[in-house]
Task: structure prediction
Amino acid sequence: MRNTPGGVPSGSVRPPAQDPAPVPGSAAVRVSDGDLRLGRVLGVPVLVTPSWWLGALVITVAYLPVSRAVLRGEHADLAALLTALALAVLLGASVLAHELGHVVAARRLGLPVRRVRLFLLGGVTE
Result:
């Protein structure tokens, strides 16, 4: 067997090239798997996965009867829906705040941080 210019013997399969990890502060992290990029916080990209939206929907639907039971008045149904949505969004914001705490801790220890992802079960700082 001869070697090809890349140093791989001819006839063998070369593994796919892997993208190098992005350097903090450089080009944007590539978004895949349907993640939605909300922006950057503390210089770190914040991504929301499709599963987070499912979780927010479940929380909203589950909390809606509770808010309907408490609220009264002419626009009680709309107020109940907005209250249930606010709960889901505030829960997501609290998970984001928690993950940003990990970002701050990692940076203080000199560790690189690629991104923060929010998903169905919480979040992860990578």
